[in-house]
Amino acid sequence: MSLCHQRQWLSSRRQMLQHTSLGFGWMALQGLLARSAHASPACHSSKARTAKRVLFLCMRGGPSHVDTFDHKPALDRDDGKSGPRPGSRLMRSPWSFQQHGESGLWMSELFPQLAHHADKLCMIHSMQTDVPAHPQAMVRLHTGTSQFVRPSMGAWVLYGLGSANENLPGFVSISPPANGGASMVGSAFLPAAFQGTRLGNDGRTFDSATLPNLTSLRSRRAQRQQLDYIQSLNRQKLARSEGQPEVEGVIESYELAFRMQSDMPKVLDLGQETETTLARYGADQGPTSAFGRKCLLARRLLEEGVRFVEISHGNWDQHQQLRNALAGNCRAIDRPIAGLLEDLESRGMLEDTLVVWSGEFGRTPYAQGNDGRDHNHKAFTLWMAGGPVRQGFSYGSSGEHGIEATENPVPVVDFHATLLALLGIDHEQLTYNHAGRDFRLTDVAGRVVREVMA
After folding, report:
1. Residues 69-81: pLDDT tens digits?
2. Cα 285 to the chain's mean position, in Å?
3. Which residue among 15, 123, 131, 395 has the highest number of C-beta atoms inside a 10 angstrom radius?
4. Taking a C-beta distance cutoff of 8 angstroms, is the pair 355, 384 a contact?
5. CATH for 44-209+269-452 (3.40.720.10, 3.30.70.260, 1.20.120.550, 3.30.70.330)
């Protein structure tokens, strides 16, 4: 049965359940939907080794590719010369670059710890997006479009793979980015069960040991009785009117919240980790503590079956004070990410976990003011690790100075197609019928970049 035919069957199945008293409710139906999507041959492009989960490290604000991972010797040579914009001048990177590992990948001195894992990384130096504006580019990166409300890629991944732990949300966003609003974690026209669960807020310190409203003063039995009564009223509402996705979403969210009370506190409790592990992530103290704790929490969530975890970090919008601000950002994430990759590998999880690092765009190789760089949507660097990605590999080029992708350009839509392929999902087959047509993450475009796959 094709995925499209499954959707039609499940739609009629949902209508039948809504208008009877079988008691399955939306939760049972949604479990069926998720399992069918996971099992559908149409969703899987091959039998090759694929990733089972995704960790997206989102660097909000546009990290400078020419100061981090995209080595440009020509900038040293042409420092101070006229740039492509009238009145601009090229600016060399303040930091030196070196090759690392057997692969010889170039990385700047801003990432001394991550450099030890160079042979695990797959770098794409020819990423492109549509516009050099933060909100639009961030929405584009997360949903595939900046013009319409569409499901986020985390929602699409959960929709395609299904849930692996019914007591935890399948998609979690830790300190989600503010630019783009709810669309960063939203499910749009996909069923509400596929939207992301937010932990913390962008720009605020997140205490991973607590989560509001996760505990109750009532006994579990009394709480279950109260919830059953509320859910009976919700289902009566469904029975009176056909097609109420908001009510269906409320029913599912209440049930998930009830189940989360048993498992989520244990996952969030970083006190169970050893001092050695905390130190590995830099989560014990200093400037790496905040991001290190988020990375450690992400590993615990992935370990318990969460399909898609996103961690947001920023601000990387260095129009000025590049030397101090960029150095501070890199210092905060370097040890935590290195510790994360090491921990995932030691637990045997890296081979089926896809780790992605990216911002919404890059920055110009010419200066803005005396110590800054402007937005650059024509070229930026994204790197991946784990899963079936090609290790110690560099793909594409942003030209001599890093101004624009000149070799093997990879627009965001191609990245989305490739992300799904690395999960074993055919991006052209993962569709959802809405408003009379089949929608997908890649809409009507998208090319899988096979060169970055092992």
Report:
1. 999 999 999 999 9
2. 26
3. 123
4. yes
5. 3.40.720.10
What is the band of 63 on the pLDDT scale with cuts at 50, 70, 90?
A: very high
Buried-state track 384-394, b at ≥16 Cβ within 10 A, e below 16? bbbbbbbbbbb
For residue 127, the cross-strand partners are: 380, 410
Structure confidence by residue, pLDDT tens digits, 119-148: 999 999 999 999 999 999 999 999 999 999
Closest Cα to residue 365, out of 92, 71, 60? 92
CA distance 410 to 209: 39
Give the DSSP H or E segment for 122: strand 121-128
198, burial (CB in 10 Å: exposed 0-12, middle 13-18, buried 19+): middle
Q: pLDDT tens for residues 256-297?
A: 777 777 788 889 899 999 999 999 999 998 999 999 999 999
Please report where in the chains the tokens 């169970």 appear, as a residue.
272
The two three-digit tokens of residue 177, written as one number: 């980015």
Has this prediction a pTM greater than 0.90? no
Return the domain boundaries, the chain: 44-209+269-452
Helices (H), 269-393: 275-280, 289-303, 322-346
Nearest-5° Cα angle at 160, 337 to 54: 5
pLDDT at 417: 98
Dihedral class, residue 187 (left if φ above 0, else alpha if ψ from -120 to 50, else beta): alpha
Q: Which two tokens stand for residue 321?
A: 């004070």
